Structures are given as structure tokens and as C-alpha cells.
Amino acid sequence: MDQNKIFRLSSYLGWVESIFNERYGHKFTLRINTYGNWELSLSGMERVITVSADTSTFRRSDSNLPLTHWDASAEGWKSVLDSPLPAPGVTCLPFPLIKESALGMDLAYDVVGLTYWMLSRQEEVGRIDLDEHDRFPATSSHAFKHGYLERPIVDEWLNILSQVIQHTWPNIRVRQHKFAMKVSHDVDRPSLYAFNSWRSITRMMFGNILKRRDIRSFIQAPYIKFTTKDSLHKADPFNTFQWLMDRSDDHGIKCTFNFLSDQTCLLHDADYILNSVIMRNLIKDIHSRGHNIGLHPSYNSYLRPEQIKSELYRMQKLLDDLGIFQDTLGGRMHYLRWKQPITMKACADAGMSYDSTLGYADRPGFRCGTCYEYPAFDPVSQEQLKLRIRPLVLMEGTIIESAYLGLGITETAEQKMRHIKRVCQLVGGNFEVLWHNSSLTNNRLAEMYVNLLK
Predict the structure, then answer these.
(1) pTM higher than 0.70, yes or no?
(2) Coil, strand, or helix at residue 191?
(3) Helix (H) or strand (E) holding 40
């Protein structure tokens, strides 16, 4: 094997090792044995776990892999979701899938390869079947096509591996993880009126009175625009920041507000200037209440590493000027625009601590097959990056808006949200939720949001 291949394999294995170590709380060693399979071992322990390897299938950048299912209960194992596990990459599996061997335990499905394929987003590299915003859509993914998008299959299979670990080394204790709800708010429009021109306000007024017969909003628009000076007006429909922080405080959640710091597209980027007095006061208030600030890189930045770096610098400089210090500074791409691995590497090179873009705009669920945070890995250069991935599980617009799942402001929509939250609870992961401050314009939306926090 040439030195370049050895280096790439070493990086691949080192990254998966780090994921296993975080998940199970032990420093495992992962290597390829003489038969070409994965071998998982613990220092000082004689027994090993051998996992069948299928490196060619799980290096593919397409969504046409075969799939079968495995019934854990038929072999005496426990499926965390109490249903057969999807097994991408194979048409059938041997029975039994897991068995004792002379060296320890054998698992005849490539859990290591699956973990790599899902978490590295190898599936998305070089794809051209994109939507109107140049995004890889859920509907093109293997998970959607085979009906497991709303299942964190990596977490499910790693739970099976955890059981095998405990069976192999019964005297060790595997780390137990606690469910957590992670809430963030992308601030695309902090105000309905304050940052619009008077020409735009006039158009809004005529729309309110002629189309909607809304006298209150007709009067409210110019009044709020005129009286907004140093801070957002309390009556502004999009000024829900205090309410959002109050609700987070009620449930012991420290939420994050992601702000745009530049414009690269007049049509899709924000209408506010980050360094304005209004926005500076808003950010100071968020920090004073114990919540976090994040970056929302602009619409066209996802393919421009230097632009992301510039926008992060602007944000960091503002925080420094305001005397705000945070242990981490990360964020989420505007419109969830993401090109793998270009955007991921750009975020890492810019110095972002974490990114929480990796969910789909058109469908809720588990784009990365997990609801656990993990270290980023570049599937092209085969190197681990200095960036943490916090997979986005649910965005309110994905469920509600007609352009996506389109369930509207209904009980069905709320049930879908609660179901996905329950799945995260069952696997002990993080329910990463994005809810825009501008998506609380009526009492039913506010009620749905509060119910989701409970």
C-alpha cells in the first residue's frame, strides 16, 4: 500500500475512533486486520470486535445504494426504536448478524463504513441534483428514498455496537448520554418595519388597508417605523426576542441567536446593518440575559471561504467592541446553503467553532443520520477538521410552509415535531431546533413553540 493511501486510511480510522471514544467514553483502537475487516480493540483487553468492512460501497457519492433491514430482536438484541434497523449498502444480511468468535465478537454489517458515509456526507460530494437555492434536497437523498430520514440510523447502529461492546467486555461501563434540547434562532428579519425604506412602508400600508382590510397594521406600520430609534419597538411583530428568551429561561435552555454580518445578495440577505445602534443594543441585551450570539453567513458566502472569514471577523470584532466573550462562536449558513465539503472546510478555516447547518430545508429529520454533535471530516481530502458539526434536526418552516412539507399551523404539524423530538429522546441525543424570531406572528404559532419546549 502506498504512503498516500496509508495516510488517508489513518485519518479515516482516527476520525471514526474519535467518534467512538466520544460516544462510548473509552479510547478504542480501530484498525484493518489481515482479512480486510475492521477490528475494534481496547488496550489491555484480550478480546476484540470484528466488523465486516465494505469500503467501496461507503465511498460512493450517490444515493443508489441498496438497502435491507435487520431485526435485532430476532437475535436477542435491542433496537432502541423497537423496529428493524435500516441497513444501507446491502441487499441482505447473514443470520445471525452478530455472533461469538474465537477472538471475541463478530458483527457482519459495516457499522464503521455507515458511520463514515453518513457523518462525512460522502453521499453529497459532487452532486448536481440540487434545488433552486443550489442545495442538496432531502428528496434526492438515500434516506428519503428508502423511508428512514426521520430515523437517526447511525445512532441506532452505534447503540447496537454499544451492546456488543458491553457483551465483549462486561466489566467496562459505556458512557450514557442525556437528551438535550438545543434551540437557535436565525435572525433574518429582526423587525417587520424598522429597516424598511419609507417607500416600502407605504406599499405595506396600502396592502394592509386595500387587500387585508387591516386598519391596525395600516396605522402600526408608519408609527413603529417613525418611533424606532435606538432599540426595536415593543409592538413590532417580529420583535419576539424577549419572549423567546423568557420561554428558554422557563425551561432552562440557553438559546443562540444567529445574525448576518454582511450582504452578498440584496434579494435574499438581511435588511439590517449589524453594527447599527439598534442591533448593537439587541445583541448586548441577549448577552446580558445569558444567551448566545452566533453567525449567520450570508446567502452567497457558502462557496466563498474568504467571505465567511470576513463575516466571522466582523462578528468577532463587534462582540469584542461590546465586551462580549463567548467560549465558542459558530453558526448556521443562510438558507441552509451548503456544498460538501467546500462550505464545511471554509467554516473550519475561518475559525468557526461549530456549524449547525446540516439539516434539510425541505424535510425534517436526520441528514447526517445522527442527533449527536461530532467532529467534522472532509471526505475529499480525507482529513479531520477543526470544526464541530451540530446537525440540525428540525426547522419550523420545513414543517409548516407550503413550499416544503406544508403541514401548516395545525395539530398534524405539531405532532410531527413532537414525534421527531421523541426520537431524539430515545437515542439520548440533541434535538437541534431552528425557530425564526419572525415565525411567531400569531398565538397558535407561539403555542406550538411553547409545546415543543415542554
Answers:
(1) yes
(2) coil
(3) strand 38-42
